[in-house]
Amino acid sequence: MAATADFVVIANRLPVDRVVQPDGSTTWRTSPGGLVTALEPVMRRNGGAWIGWHGAPDEKLRTFEHDGITLVPVHLTGQEYEEYYEGFSNATLWPLYHDVVAPPEFHREWWESYVEVNRRFAKKAARIARRNAVVWVQDYQLQLVPQMLRELRPDLRIGFFLHIPFPPNELFQQLPWRRSILEGLLGADLVGFQLPGAAQNFVRLVRQRVGHKTHRDTVYLEDGRTVTARAYPISIDAAGFEEMARRPEVVARAAEIRESLGNPRCVLLGIDRLDYTKGLRQRLRAFGELVTEGAVDVDDAVFVQVATPSRERVEQYRLLRDDIDRLVGRINGDVGRIGAQPITYLHASYPREEMAALYRAADVMVVTPLRDGMNLVAKEYVACRYDDDGALVLSEFAGAAAELRQAYRVNPYDINGLKEALLEAIRAPEKERTRRMKAMRKQVVENDIELWATRFLDDLRTVRHTHDKTPRP
Ligand code: GDG
């Protein structure tokens, strides 16, 4: 593998899925997602390379070209997948960074595997990046890569973006390897977060735990380097979603969905990965109580909950699935009637067009995470409502709440408050819905994923990289 790339993205997964043809041969298809959409043009312009795992354990693949981008597959053994990915990333870091809403597990073997795999990613990047190239590392699975890569290649400009929240010291300090993680991130020139609060948590932790001097968003290292920590709230391909939602077949499908639900007056919708951070339990309980109490008529309102299968081998996710199955069964059993089930629960994953049709079909979108870095579903719903109609109920603990100020805001832990917000959204007059939706649409359309990537990459190229070693912050 030669040094060929002036721009390198490193993420846990490659942006492609394998497709097996009827004759047994395999091809690759770009996986749908905002990040790929936003970065594709930048990659094409700069001879870009994307480093990531290709999705199959115990398989080694060579570097290949796909749609004008160089894809560099990283090999993971089955055991590494269990320890680095399911273990340390998803059963240690994920719950720890999301307010400990589930107990994080700490295992030394998982950590060792995390270090090992991070080193493999860093080495690949060191080999493929041209002199002075820009490297952008993505997310919590790869927090050690910036430092490992800097040791190998001090000439590179290294950026890091964390898609999930960054916890305050009170929680972060539980992590036995807390200092190594902070030092790993400090290998970057620019560390990006979803919200200013997360960037502040990081800078404060670096000062308290590693002892570096800091001033506002800048960390001054002893070797003369500086590291900047700022917020870059991620967004979506808003125009792409709107275009999809306007397609005649999507509009027709939205009508068909409402029809299959019995044309209720109000369709409420939740779409989430089946994850304990998303507040599914709270929202279903709140809706169930409204129906039981008669505030909402089962012939009048239907709740559609799509829960996309996720991390199914991790214990907390298995427990959650059983829990939600039981809860939905109980509510439907208690208050449903023949031909009228208050909750339509779908444990499945759908094509993007079907998602757009669901967004179009929903009068009230219910997004109630207990903690969420951003939450793209909330923004996708808004982007699809080109009719300026529909109401968004949004948790104040989602990053998106900072931008979508006209949503019906809720604290998902407060079931009564949640019930009130649901009722308010269900009963909102058209004028009120339009007023709120217009303002939210402006926000999402003006701040799309392309702008997010541009802002980050422009800053990465221009932030100060050195200081005179005697800062007077
Ligand atoms: C992490 C952070 C942050 C869901 N089901 C289907 C499907 N989806 C798509 C949605 C949306 C995406 O998955 C989910 O994104 P979220 O932002 O809602 O949540 P996470 O997966 O937890 O993402 C989060 C994000 O990273 C980006 O930085 O916002 O806070 O946790 O795009 O549409 N897509 C399709 N079928 C499904 O069934 N096609």
TrEMBL record:
GO BP: trehalose biosynthetic process
Transmembrane intervals: none
Source organism, top-level taxon: Bacteria
Alphabetical list of Gene3D superfamilies matching this protein: Glycogen Phosphorylase B
Any one Gene Ontology molecular-function term assigned to this protein's record: alpha,alpha-trehalose-phosphate synthase (UDP-forming) activity
InterPro entries attached to this UniProt entry: Glyco_trans_20 (IPR001830)
Protein family membership: Belongs to the glycosyltransferase 20 family.
Name of this protein: Trehalose-phosphate synthase
Organism, as annotated: Aeromicrobium erythreum
